[in-house]
Amino acid sequence: MISADFVRTFARYNRWQNRSLYGAADALPAEERTRDRGAFFSSIHGTLSHILWGDLQWMSRFAPDLAEKPPALVRQSPGNFPDWDDLKARRIAADEMIIGWADAMQPDWLDGELFWYSGAMKANVSKPKWFTVAHFFNHQTHHRGQVHAMLTAAGAKPDDTDLFLMS
After folding, report:
1. Within the chain, what is the greatest distance between any pair of CA atoms?
2. Residue 76: pLDDT band with limits 50, 70, 90
3. Per residue in 145-156, pLDDT tens?
4. CA nearest to 79, candidates 36, 45, 120
5. Domain 4-165 has what CATH class?
6. CA 26/CA 33 separation, integer angstroms
7. Domain ranges of the chain
8. Closest listed residue to residue 129, CA positions, set 104, 102, 106, 109
9. For 108-131, how does the pLDDT look when each residue is reduced to its tens digit (9 = 90+)?
């Protein structure tokens, strides 16, 4: 099981890594950010859009008073935020929302059960909250790794990803 301190640490790691990736991506021309690179969500921009979509989807379940369910379905998520400047602004706002949620978390919240309808499974689902929060951060890290690789291949220089390097 994870703790509220784990959640706060990973909320900050999420923001730190997003700043790195968006900073590196911002240095590329739009054509490079949107080029199909063979990744699951096609491009750097598409994958970053999917990560934000996923974050908003999970936050709408964890804290519906803070986040609205995002538009579209998972398969459409790479195109949810087509404007680069809008995507960047939404990412910054989402990262601050996630940190605020994490900072306010009471440790016993993680002991509960989360219930939601999964569009991917076409079914009602129930899982322990700690498990879904761990998935939330794992999902971000997984797809950010893909973006990091795409950025590096495009000649950009994102920062290191090692958690222990975070200040």
Report:
1. 46
2. low
3. 999 999 999 999
4. 45
5. mainly alpha
6. 8
7. 4-165
8. 109
9. 999 999 999 988 888 999 999 999
Rounded Cα distance, 126 and 132, in Å = 10
Q: How far apart are CA 66 and CA 93, in angstroms?
A: 11
**Is residue 28 within 8 Å of residue 44, measured between CB atoms?**
yes
How confident is the model at residue 140, as a pLDDT? 97
pTM of the model: 0.94
Length of the chain equals 167
C-alpha 113: how far from its chain's center? Answer: 22
Task: Give just the sign of the alpha carbon dihedral 123, 80, 75, 66.
Answer: negative
CA pair distance 65, 47, nearest whole angstrom = 26
What whole-number distance in Å separates Cα of residue 94 and Cα of residue 100? 10
Q: Please say whether the dihedral angle defined by the alpha carbons of residues 61, 67, 73 and 74, taken in this order, is positive or negative.
A: negative
SS3 18: helix
